[in-house]
Amino acid sequence: MTGVISGVSVSHSLATVEEVESAAPADASAATERLASRPGVSESVVLATCNRAEAYVVTDDAEDGRAALDDFAPEVREGAVTRFDHEGTIRHLMRVASGLESLVLGEDQIIGQVKDAMERAREDGTLGAVLEEALLKAVHVGERARTETSINEGTVSMGSAAVELAARETPLDDATALVLGAGEMGTLAARAFAGAGVDRLIVANRTVPNAAHVAQDVSVDAEAVGLEAAADAARGASVVVAATGAPDAVLTAEELRGTEAVCVDIARPRDIDPAADELSSVVVHDIDDLETVTEQAHEQRRAAARQVEAMIDAEHERLLSSFKRARADEAIRGMYEGAERMKAREIDRALTKLEAQGGLNEDQRETVEALADSLVSQLLAPPTQSLREAAGEDDWTTIRTAMQLFDPTFDATEADSAAEAADEAAGE
């Protein structure tokens, strides 16, 4: 298990909704495979959610990793793009899975999204041992954070935060609410509307049976319709939460003209045409506006977040040590494999010559073999120690040089033959 990880992120912390949308690939699998085809890339994973678009690659040389990710978000201003080296990527993944990088601190959806990204990469054939261990460790830390601290106690999900934001704009008692989308966020929004006391709920989704499942899940009068009926449903609703995965706007400004509604769009790409906010009777909020709703929840979780930070520090150090040992061990293994092959070949030559000179008994043969073993052990002990120290000091240049010098695939017999041929040619 060798290689260094490089990462790139466009997230809500520095980027606008439009920039996150711009960076997010339309097809995560295709984007992952494109990265895997870049020079030097052996593994790749793409993580795309409502609030972030990120990519991670594994290469032998960190420079190859940076080059592979250079054009991940070409249309996003430089100040909104964060790049990570090997150690930074590992820490960032742990922070993401723990919910420390989420808009809603400690929210639970992200850990499932990290798992999904990992599984998709596995199915696409781009997940290898290095990224798998890093992602599994991130998921492990995320699960520990939620079971050992209160980081997600009273968590306000994106869906419920959207409902709370809408409630600040208009009364929800006896209101008719529309939810666009029957996925996880749509389901959470529907449940939050039911808990807020709406009189009627309409769930619109491309697949009506899925919308029906959500409608049956809540304890208020609820109806399921297809997305083609969303515009008609919006005209009768006073509050809308949009959370589909549709590639284009589900509700246009023209379709909302004459409607009196508060709309909260948490989809990416957005479900509601931003121009609708210019209508006098319609208020449109997007993901950026949820920060005002979540600030109080953030304050309550900051103490827990400090516990999670300490947890990440410890897990980060353990994983880095594991990666460092693996890199050093590969170089050491190559060094010993090459030496063992050379030793076996030279012992065979020596014993053949000695047999020709009068023969050897078994004790003498053992003495020759023991001498060869001792020489190999003593000669390789100093570089072995140096490689372990280099790994501990993050001296990857030394390790890469050793791996090149002690390439286990190097055929010394061929090299000897070539050298002999060159000597003969020079003698002629």
UniProtKB/TrEMBL annotation:
Amino-acid positions noted as binding substrate in the UniProt annotation, renumbered to this chain: 49-52, 102, 107-109, 113
Keyword field contains Repeat: no
EC number from the UniProt entry: 1.2.1.70
Catalytic reactions of this protein: (S)-4-amino-5-oxopentanoate + tRNA(Glu) + NADP(+) = L-glutamyl-tRNA(Glu) + NADPH + H(+)
One of the GO biological process terms: protoporphyrinogen IX biosynthetic process from glutamate
Domain statement: Possesses an unusual extended V-shaped dimeric structure with each monomer consisting of three distinct domains arranged along a curved 'spinal' alpha-helix. The N-terminal catalytic domain specifically recognizes the glutamate moiety of the substrate. The second domain is the NADPH-binding domain, and the third C-terminal domain is responsible for dimerization.
Important for activity (site feature) positions: 92
Annotated protein name in UniProt: Glutamyl-tRNA reductase
Organism whose genome encodes this protein: Halolamina salifodinae
